[in-house]
Design brief:
- There is one protein chain.
- This protein has 56 residues and is of the alpha+beta class.
- 20% of the residues lie in helices and 20% in strands.
- It is built from one helix and two strands, in the order E-E-H.
- The chain has a two-stranded antiparallel ribbon with strand order 1-2.
- Strand 1 and strand 2 form a beta hairpin.
- It starts with 11 loop residues before the first strand and ends in an 8-residue tail after the last helix.
- The relative contact order is 0.24.
- The mean pLDDT is 92.
Length: 56
C-alpha cells in the first residue's frame, strides 16, 4: 500500500468536512484540497492503481 507524507500543514484544515471516501468527518485534505482521511486516500490509491505497461 502506498504511504503518503502529509506532515505539511497544507493537508490540514481547521474546519472538518466529510471524507470523500468514507463520509466521516475529517480535517485532513488531499493534495488537491479535497477532504479525505490519509488512510482512506492510501487505500483508495492502492485499489485504483493502474498496472504499469508491459515493456517486454
Amino acid at each position: 500500500m502506498p504511504l503518503f507524507d502529509w506532515r505539511d500543514s497544507r493537508h490540514w484544515d481547521n474546519k472538518p468536512a466529510p471524507c470523500g471516501v468514507c463520509t466521516q468527518p475529517t480535517n485532513l485534505r488531499s493534495d488537491r484540497g479535497k477532504p479525505v482521511h490519509k488512510v482512506c486516500a492510501e487505500q483508495w490509491t492502492e485499489q485504483h492503481a493502474k498496472p504499469a505497461p508491459d515493456q517486454s
